[in-house]
Amino acid sequence: MATALKKTKSVWVCSHCGNEYSKWLGRCPSCGEWNSMVEQEVVTGKAPVAGMVVGPERKPLPLKDVATTQEDRVSLGSAEVDRLLGGGIVKGSLVLMGGEPGIGKSTLSLQLPLHTPSLKTLYVTGEESVKQVKMRADRLGGDASGCLILSETDMSSILKEAQETAPDLMIVDSVQTMYCQHIDSTAGSVSQIKEVAAQLLRFAKSTGIPVILIGHITKEGTIAGPKILEHIVDVVLQFEGENRGAYRVLRSIKNRFGSTAELAVFEMTGQGLREVANPSEMLIPMHEEGLSGTAISAMLDGNRPFLFEVQALVSSAVYGTAQRSATGFDVRRLNMLLAVLERRAGFKLGQKDVFLNMAGGLRITDPACDLAVIVAVLSSNFDYAIPSDICFAGEVGLSGEIRPVSQAARRAVEAARVGFKRIFVSSYTHLDQKPQGIEVVKVADIPALVRALFK
Ligand code: TYD
Ligand code: MG
Questions:
Q1: 358 exposed, middle or buried (CB, 10 Å; 0-12, 13-18, 19+)?
Q2: What are the backbone dihedrals phi and psi of residue 231, each rounded to the nearest 5 degrees, phi first?
Q3: Which atom of ligand 1 is nearest to the CA of 109?
Q4: pLDDT in tens, 63-89
Q5: What spacing in Å lies between the alpha carbon of 107 and ligand 1's midpoint?
Q6: How far is the CA of 101 from the centre of ligand 2 (A)?
Q7: What's the pLDDT tens digit per position in 248-263?
Q8: Predicted confidence (pLDDT) at residue 418 exceeds the cutoff of 90
């Protein structure tokens, strides 16, 4: 009897990075997360082994004899998504689309088949009923004639249906709701998630059907999520942005068939996600000139330069301790920048509340944004508006020095294109060629910046 061969044992799995340990640990030694261990039963024995798939050539081949062909790609009818994937989805690839709940994963993945009716798409939903999906599709518009919908969570039925239907594209929403019968733990557990992904990978490789798998990730990363799957899948696209804000950034963080330095911006509208082909024009201010507390940063995210507004509010602390809060920006970095302002430039911000906000709900990690953050804080503190034709790109160091940033010339060119007249950068910036139509102002440190801006 097959079951007699099965043995169960327990392992502890970090729900953040997916590493396994034989005992519980308060902190994961691998990724450093606290309190992230969850107990998992693993079945050893007859259960299929999750892992990489081997192609039809099972014998070693001389590398020079391996025929190279361009990957076969399918366009998904969205210029931005195609670009992120490196020119359409590769046949037989498994793409993970991750993001926090409510950010728009289901919306985008349903929009894809609605815009490419010529593709036969199988949309498997484990979260919503067929009726709910239909209602959403009606709202999104487009042509639903190529889209088949299946409401199912059992992987063996899904794969059986998929084999029979033989679609051009399969979408599975979401990995957390699917389960494999031979694994004892509940849907959404680490072992189920890994096995679901491994089965879909085998399915994609063996049939050549590309699969888009949706996975939730929480802010704290507490539930088993896409982090665990990153090693298994071919491509990881991740949604970022504040759910309340209108803008969503879709970023490619892993791509076996293309560049990871890509990102696409979408706007959530009443009719679904709209592609924003030109992010700069959306993210710079829509208010009158002359407001203090704002500064425009010329940032580079992935390969794409764009400009956006940083907003700061500095006010006297009402309670004993000053509050610091940042939306879309690392609050520790904000504290560091405030400490630099305090120590190196003599600004007494210690008794002030400081609130920082990145326009459009974007989450910014580019260090070049430091300069705009400092300028926005100072502008609010002095209640002095920065002229609207100036933008900034520079990293701020602990001694108050302004450090050069990557690809300054491309940032300046984008700023000039959107109509800026001056860009502030570090004195140490090297520009291969002088950008046309914009003055490059070089500043060495914070005192020099203050002299140049707030005379
Ligand atoms: P959804 O795609 O369901 O998020 P996820 O699958 O990532 O959990 O939807 C996200 C939000 O978008 C939801 O709160 C409703 C909103 N929304 C719109 O604003 N316009 C629309 O056309 C649709 C379909 C959703
Ligand atoms: Mg959803």
A1: buried
A2: -75, -25
A3: 2
A4: 888 777 777 899 998 988 998 998 999
A5: 6
A6: 7
A7: 888 888 899 887 777 8
A8: no
Report helix, strand or coil for 110.
Answer: helix
Q: How many CB atoms lie within 10 A of CB 153?
A: 18
Written as six digits, the tokens of 81 are 């998504």
pLDDT band at 50 (very low <50, low <70, confident <90, very high): very low
Site to probe by mutation for ligand 1, drawn from 135, 268, 274 as the one with most ligand atoms within 8 Å of Cβ, is 268
**Number of the ligand closest to the Cα of 128:** 2
Which structure tokens are listed for 126? 């484990």
DSSP 438: -
The one-letter amino acid code at 442 reads K
Contacts for 320 with CB less than 8 Å, ≥ 6 apart: none
CA distance 224 to 15: 5
* Cβ of residue 102 lying under 6 Å from some atom of ligand 1: yes
Q: How far is CA 168 from the centre of its chain?
A: 26
Cis amide bond preceding 15, omega within 30? no
Q: Which ligand is nearest to the CA of 108?
A: 1
The amino acid occupying position 88 is G
Would you list the DSSP string of 347-364?
---TTEEEEEEEGGG---
User: Ligand 1 pocket, 51 CB below 6 A?
Assistant: no
How many A from CA of 280 to the centre of ligand 2? 28
The single-letter DSSP state of residue 142 is S
User: Per-residue pLDDT averaged across 307-326, rounded?
Assistant: 88
Shortest CA distance to 438 belongs to which of 409, 407, 408, 416?
416
Note the pLDDT of residue 59. Answer: 79
**Digit-coded pLDDT (tens) for 354-392:** 999 988 777 888 899 999 999 999 999 999 999 988 999
Q: What is the pLDDT of residue 310?
A: 93
User: Ligand 1: does its nearest atom lie under 6 Å from the Cβ of 244?
Assistant: no
Is the Cβ atom of 105 under 6 angstroms away from ligand 1?
yes
Spatial separation of the C-alpha atoms in residues 300 and 305, rounded to whole Å:
4
Runs of H (alpha helix) within 141-255: 155-165, 190-207, 226-229
Contact 94, 234 (CB under 8 A): yes
Ligand 2 centroid distance, CA of 26 (Å): 32
Torsion from C-alpha of 236, 369, 424, 251, nearest 10 degrees: 10
To test the ligand 1 pocket, which listed residue (105, 107, 212) has its Cβ within 8 A of the most ligand atoms? 107
What's the token pair of residue 421?
Answer: 């007249």
Regarding the beta carbon of 141 and ligand 1, being less than 6 Å apart is answered: no
